[in-house]
Design brief:
Blueprint lengths: L30 E2 L11 H11 L11 H11 L6 E4 L2 H12 L5 E6 L4 H8 L3 E6 L8 H7 L4 E7 L11 H10 L5 E5 L16 H6 L3 E6 L12 E4 L2 H9 L8 H12 L1 H24 L11 E4 L5 H10 L2 E2 L1 E3 L3 E5 L5 H14 L1
Parallel strand pairs: 1-10, 3-4, 3-5, 5-6, 6-7
Antiparallel strand pairs: 2-8, 7-8, 9-12, 11-12
C-alpha cells in the first residue's frame, strides 16, 4: 500500500533559513534598537492623514496604488509608468525576482548585506552569489564585477549597506553600472538613502539611473518616513522593467491607510527632514560614546551603527538584552545598533560600563 506523505513544497525551499528577529530578554525592553525603525510614532499631518483614511478603509484603494505612484513620479521627475509601489521594498524585490529570475540564474550581491537577499533569491529559484565586503565593511565593486558571468541575471547593491552603514561612492557606482552587460539588471537598494548626507551628482540621480534601462532603484517608507508598521515602498526603473513588476503584483499592493500616510509624508518634507536631522545627530553621539569606550563603530550613512565585534558579537548583544536594550547581533561578525531614540545612549552607557570592566 502506498503511504501518502501529503503535498510536497518545491525542493529549493528545503532548509531555507528564516528571517531572524531579536527576542526580549529577562528584563523589560527599555530601548528597541534592533530593527532600524524610526524613533517615536506617527505625528502631525501624517498621523492625521492615516487616521482619516481608516474611516474609509471599507473601500479598496486605487488599483496599483496609482495615486501614490503618480506623486512619487512627480517628485522624482520620472514618468508615472516608471514607478511601481507595494507594501514595502522587499515585496517589490521579491516580485522583481519573480519577473526576471529563471531557475538556476545567479544573483550577485555583497556579503554581509541585507539578510533577506539570499532568502528571496532562493525562493525565486535563483542562486545567490555572495561577494565578501572589503576589510572596512564596504562593497568590493571590482570583485562583484568579476563575479558576474553568463548565468548572472541581477546584481544587488545595498547603498547605504545594511548592516555596516557604508556607502558606495557615486562615481564608482556609475562606472560599475557602465561596465556591466546591458542584460544584467542592477538593483540599487536605497532603503536608507535619506540618512546619506552626500550630494548626489546628476548622473546618479534616480531619473538618470532609471533611464539606463537596466537599473532599478528600490526605496521604502519604513525607515526615514517612519511608516514601518503601515508598509509602503516603491521601485523606479524603465517603464519596461517597472511594467514587468506591476504585472506580477496584486491589484491592490498597498493599503489605503499606508497610501494616505505616505502621501502626507511626501507633502510635508519638513517632518521627514526634522526626523532625519535628529537621527544624524544621535548617530554622531552614539559613535562618539562607543569610541570613548574603545569600541569604534564604522562610519555610517544610515540610521544605525556597526560594531565589528567578530566572535564577541553575541556576548555583547546578550549583555545589552540583559539591560533591556535590544540590538541586532550577527554571530561571528558584528552588532548593528539602530540610532535615533534619545534614550539609547543612557542605556548603552550602562552596558558599556559593564562590558569595559570585562
Amino acid at each position: 500500500m502506498t503511504v501518502s506523505t501529503g503535498p510536497v513544497p518545491r525542493p529549493e525551499l528545503s532548509g531555507l533559513a528564516a528571517y531572524s528577529s531579536v527576542a526580549p530578554g529577562p528584563v523589560p525592553v527599555r530601548v528597541r534598537a534592533s530593527s532600524n525603525e524610526a524613533p517615536g510614532g506617527l505625528a502631525g499631518p501624517v498621523l492625521d492623514a492615516a487616521v482619516a483614511a481608516v474611516g474609509g478603509a471599507s473601500r479598496y484603494p486605487l488599483i496599483g496604488g496609482g495615486d501614490l505612484a503618480a506623486a512619487l513620479a512627480s517628485s522624482l521627475g520620472v514618468a508615472a509608468d516608471a514607478v511601481a509601489v507595494a507594501d514595502g521594498a522587499l515585496p517589490l524585490l521579491d516580485r522583481l525576482l519573480l519577473a526576471y529570475v529563471r531557475p538556476g540564474d545567479e544573483v550577485v550581491m555583497a556579503w554581509r548585506s541585507y539578510e533577506a537577499y539570499p532568502l528571496s533569491v532562493q525562493v525565486a529559484g535563483g542562486r545567490p552569489v555572495g561577494v565578501p565586503l572589503t576589510a572596512d565593511g564596504a562593497h568590493d565593486l571590482p570583485a562583484m564585477a568579476a563575479a558576474v558571468g553568463p548565468a548572472t541575471r541581477i546584481v544587488l547593491v545595498c547603498n547605504p549597506n545594511n548592516p555596516t552603514g557604508t556607502v558606495v561612492p557615486w562615481d564608482a557606482l556609475v562606472s560599475f553600472v557602465d561596465a556591466l552587460p546591458p542584460d544584467v539588471l542592477v538593483v540599487l537598494d536605497e532603503a536608507y538613502t535619506e540618512y546619506d548626507e552626500r550630494p548626489r551628482p546628476d548622473d546618479a540621480a534616480v531619473a538618470a539611473l532609471a533611464d539606463r534601462g537596466n537599473v532599478v532603484v528600490l526605496r521604502t517608507f519604513s525607515k526615514a518616513h517612519g511608516l514601518a508598521g503601515l508598509r509602503a515602498g516603491y521601485l523606479v526603473a524603465s517603464s519596461a522593467v517597472a511594467g514587468a513588476v506591476r504585472s506580477v503584483l496584486p491589484p491592490f499592493p498597498v493599503s489605503s491607510v499606508a497610501v494616505a500616510a505616505a502621501l502626507a509624508s511626501l507633502a510635508h518634507p519638513d517632518v521627514l527632514a526634522d526626523r532625519v536631522a535628529g537621527t544624524r545627530v544621535e548617530r554622531s553621539r552614539v559613535r562618539a560614546l562607543l569610541a570613548a569606550r574603545g569600541l569604534p563603530a564604522l562610519p555610517s550613512s544610515a540610521n544605525f551603527v556597526w560594531l565589528p565585534l567578530a566572535e564577541r558579537a553575541v556576548d555583547f548583544a546578550d549583555l545589552c538584552r540583559a539591560h533591556g536594550l535590544l540590538v541586532r547581533p550577527f554571530a561571528g561578525e558584528g552588532v548593528r545598533i539602530t540610532v535615533g531614540d534619545p534614550h539609547l545612549r543612557a542605556v548603552l552607557g550602562e552596558v558599556l560600563d559593564v562590558w569595559c570592566r570585562g
